[in-house]
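testing teh design pipeline on a random one, pls ignore if ur not involved
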C-alpha cells in the first residue's frame, strides 16, 4: 500500500453538505447513513462514509494525504537538487529522525491521553505547518537534520493518536471499519499528490520543489479546523476505574509487547513491496521493468477498493487473531509466487508477479484489519494513545530492519531467500495469534489475582 502512516475523487459519489451531517456517533442509521442506497456493489458501498464524524475524518485524510503525496514524491529531489545534500547525508538525517520518532512515540501518546487526542491532534497539525515551512528553506546539512527530525517526529506520533481519536468517537467493530475507510482514502490521496508533484519535477527548479513542501505545510491548516469539529461526536471517558484490574504499563507488558513485535514483523510486506520487489523484478526476472509500476497500481487499487471489506473478517478480537494468522499464510504464499517468477520467461513471469501481488495485497489488507481490531480491543479507553503508541513500535522496528533484511534475503540469496521470508511471515502470523491469546490470558489472570487480593 502507499503509506500507512486521501483523494477526494474517490468520494464524489455523494455531495458533502454540512447541513446533512447527522449528529449521531458511529454508524447508526441516519439520513446520510443509508450506506450506498441504490449502490449494490459492496466495495463501492464500503467507500461511502455513513456518519457526520466519518465524513469529517475522511475529508481530513483526503486533504492531508494529497499534501503528504506531494512531499513524499518530491522530498528527496528537494534534498539533493536544492539543498545539495549527498545520499549519505540524507541517509544519516533520516536515520536520526527515525530514532527520534521512536523515542518520542510513547511520551507523545501519554501527553495525548492527558490533554485529549483531539486537542493533541489540533496542536500537532499547527506545529506541522511550522516545521514543514522551515524545511522548505533549509540550506545546509544541520538545518536539514533539525527540520527533518521535527517533521518525522510529528508525522510518526500522529498515527497512534489519530487512531485513539477514532476510538473516542466510534465503538466496537465500527472503529476498525473507519480506520479501513481512512486507509483506503489515504492510498488514493497519496497517489494524487504524487501525480501532482510531477509538475515540479518537469519544471525542475528550486522554487518548484519548495512549493511542494509548502503545499504540504498548508494542507494542515484546514485539517486543524476539521478535527476541531469532531468535539460534538466524542464520547465521554468512562468513570475512573476502581483500583485493581490490568494496570501494567504497556512497555512492561511482555505479552502485549510480544504481540506488537510479531504483528510488526508482518509489516515486512512494506519493505518487500517498495524495496525488494522492484530490485527483484529488474535484476532477477525476465519481466519488463514496467511491471514495477503494474504491481504498485494493482496493490493500490485493491487496497483502495477492498480494505474496508476485509474488516468483515476481523469483527472481534478472536476473529482478528485468526486474521493475523491467515495474513501470515497469504503473505508467505505470495513470496513463493514472486520467487517462481525467476524461473520463467517474460510473459509467464509477469503473470506470476500479478498473481503474487493479488495474494500479497489480500494478506496485507487482512493484517491491517486484524491489527487495528486487536490493538483497539486490547488497549484501555483511558491511556489508549500511550498503549497504541507502544503497539506501533512494532511497525517502527520494521521500518528500521525491514529494508536491509529483505534486500539481504531476496537480492543476495536469490530464490532461496524467498523461502526464508516465507518462513518469517508464517512464524509472525502464528506468533501474532499466540500473542493475542497470551495477552487475553494475562489480563484474565491479572483480574483474578486482583479480585483475590481484595477479599
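output:
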Amino acid at each position: 500500500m502507499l503509506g500507512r502512516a486521501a483523494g477526494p475523487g474517490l468520494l464524489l459519489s455523494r455531495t458533502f453538505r454540512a447541513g446533512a451531517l447527522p449528529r449521531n456517533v458511529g454508524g447508526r442509521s441516519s439520513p446520510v447513513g443509508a450506506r450506498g442506497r441504490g449502490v449494490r456493489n459492496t466495495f463501492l458501498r464500503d467507500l461511502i462514509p455513513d456518519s457526520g464524524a466519518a465524513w469529517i475524518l475522511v475529508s481530513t485524510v483526503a486533504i492531508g494525504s494529497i499534501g503528504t503525496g506531494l512531499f513524499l514524491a518530491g522530498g528527496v529531489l528537494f534534498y539533493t537538487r536544492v539543498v545539495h545534500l549527498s545520499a549519505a547525508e540524507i541517509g544519516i538525517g533520516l536515520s536520526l529522525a527515525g530514532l527520534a520518532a521512536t523515542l518520542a512515540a510513547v511520551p507523545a501518546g501519554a501527553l495525548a491521553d492527558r490533554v485529549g487526542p483531539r486537542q493533541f491532534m489540533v496542536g500537532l497539525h499547527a506545529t506541522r505547518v511550522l516545521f514543514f515551512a522551515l524545511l522548505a528553506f533549509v540550506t545546509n546539512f544541520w538545518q536539514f537534520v533539525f527540520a527533518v527530525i521535527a517533521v518525522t517526529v510529528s508525522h510518526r506520533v500522529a498515527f497512534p493518536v489519530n487512531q485513539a481519536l477514532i476510538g473516542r468517537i466510534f465503538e466496537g467493530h465500527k472503529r476498525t471499519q473507519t480506520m479501513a475507510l481512512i486507509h483506503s482514502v489515504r492510498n488514493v490521496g497519496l497517489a494524487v499528490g504524487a501525480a501532482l508533484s510531477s509538475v515540479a519535477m518537469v519544471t525542475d527548479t528550486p522554487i518548484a520543489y519548495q512549493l511542494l513542501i509548502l503545499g504540504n505545510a498548508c494542507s494542515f491548516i484546514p485539517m486543524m479546523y476539521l478535527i476541531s469539529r469532531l468535539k460534538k461526536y466524542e464520547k465521554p471517558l468512562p468513570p475512573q476505574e476502581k483500583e485493581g484490574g490490568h494496570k501494567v504499563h504497556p512497555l512492561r507488558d511482555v505479552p502485549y509487547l510480544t504481540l506488537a513485535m510479531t504483528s510488526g514483523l508482518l509489516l515486512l510486506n512494506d519493505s518487500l513491496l517498495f524495496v525488494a520487489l522492484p530490485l527483484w523484478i529488474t535484476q532477477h526476472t525476465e519481466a519488463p521493468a514496467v511491471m514495477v509500476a503494474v504491481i504498485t497500481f494493482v496493490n493500490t487499487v485493491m487496497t483502495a477498493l477492498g480494505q474496508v471489506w476485509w474488516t468483515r473478517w476481523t469483527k472481534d478480537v478472536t476473529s482478528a487473531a485468526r486474521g493475523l494468522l491467515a495474513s501470515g499464510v497469504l503473505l508467505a504464499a505470495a513470496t513463493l509466487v514472486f520467487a517462481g517468477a525467476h524461473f520463467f520467461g517474460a510473459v509467464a513471469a509477469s503473470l506470476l508477479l500479478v498473481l503474487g501481488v493479488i495474494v500479497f495485497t489480500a494478506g496485507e489488507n487482512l493484517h491491517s484489519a486484524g491489527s487495528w481490531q486487536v490493538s483497539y480491543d486490547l488497549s484501555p479507553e483511558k491511556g489508549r494513545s500511550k498503549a497504541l503508541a507502544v503497539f506501533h513500535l512494532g511497525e517502527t522496528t520494521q521500518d528500521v530492519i525491514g529494508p536491509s533484511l529483505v534486500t539481504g534475503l531476496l537480492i543476495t540469496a536469490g530464490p532461496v531467500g524467498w523461502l526464508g521470508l516465507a518462513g518469517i511471515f508464517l512464524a509472525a502470523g502464528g506468533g501474532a495469534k499466540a500473542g493475542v491469546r497470551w495477552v487475553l490470558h494475562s489480563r484474565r489472570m491479572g483480574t483474578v489475582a486482583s479480585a483475590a487480593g481484595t477479599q
